[in-house]
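User: Hello! My lab partner asked me to get a predicted holo structure for this protein. The small molecule is pyridoxal-5'-phosphate, SMILES included with the sequence. Please write out the structure tokens.
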Amino acid sequence: MTAKSDHRPATRLVEAGRRKEWTGSVVSPPVWRASTHLYEDSADLAKGRPNADGYFYYGRRGSPTQWSLAEALTELEPGAEGTVLYPSGVAAIAGALLAVLKSGDVLLMTDNAYEPSRAMAKSLLADFGVEVRFFEPLDLDAFPGAFCERTAAVLLESPGSLTMEVCDIPALAAMARDKGAVSLLDNTWASPLGFAALQHGCDVSIMSLTKHVGGHSDVMMGSAAAAGALYRKLRTKAQALGIVVSPDDAALALRGLRTMGVRLERSSASALKIAEWLAQRDEVAHVLCPMLAEAPGHALWKRDFDGGCGLFSFVLRGRDEAARARFVDSLELFGIGYSWGGFESLVVPFDAGRARTATAWPPARWRVEDCLGIRVSIGLEAAEDLMSDLDRAFAAMDGA
Ligand SMILES: *Cc1c(COP(=O)(O)O)cnc(C)c1O
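Assistant: Hello! Below are the structure tokens for the protein in complex with pyridoxal-5'-phosphate.
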């Protein structure tokens, strides 16, 4: 038989995590609802169990449903030796940072990070005596100067939340390693199918499984994958924090994972079509979509990524907030709401400038009146129907 790692990602998506001893004679592992795991006798109890997936011990260490999902994610992330599951993406980021940082350390965080990551670092990590400093991810020359003796970790994200700039992750991760810091990547946008984080030099690959993996807007979960001692550190820290995900949620995430590849192919193809269409519109000043040929960062995306997804942003040309609200409220196929990566399209207005501290947003080269952002998550609807919906909303925005 071919070694599992030789299979292409599409095949691994189908096969991964389906160990016979976990699935029995059905296709997917059943939902093992369990707190207590029973031992044969007192001698069996006294023998103990290795602290690794696959050994029944106690519910907090999971059961075959969770192990199957964790193993499937590990098999999808080249270079990973294990994956820890968390009850949300934010919990994964917090759990991974708590595992690699201690009091007195400095964390470097990319200025385009997901806003709750920023908030968590400034509250939770600050309370534990960790200092967070933000850096501009596109300024590679300035990056080495951001480090000090106490810098222990770097949190990266590419493309950045809302503003979607693709960063030179291999270069940033290599510099972090050079300086003795652990690099962690929030890889939610691309997933390991689109960006092999560990192969590109990152130490920890983090994902909100709520997005592409779940894929149906009905489950929240996060993951962090790594190799060797770092994986064991993530695991023991998560156990110390009492982190466990429910088997029902794990089963939902596993179900979503099996179709993630085809959903991503479809939603990224539609997103590219819609991004190209938006770029031609008078009402739109900038389209922030890494898959778009003229977008900044497109060359890095082409170089490093194997795929995209349905999430991108655009900026209205010279409209005010009331116009933006008319546009958003006139959409019929796009729900208004947070999160993304579901089968259904979503929209959310944003103001990226609010969160930034290392660099100003919008960029100085833009006209000041072009600043109101809209983020869209393209789902599985027909792209033509979504474009008609957007077209109608543009007309309504300008009072037609
Ligand atoms: C949504 C999101 C998260 C957080 O995930 P939750 O599962 O909602 O906690 C983290 N990073 C990015 C880039 C996200 O978009």
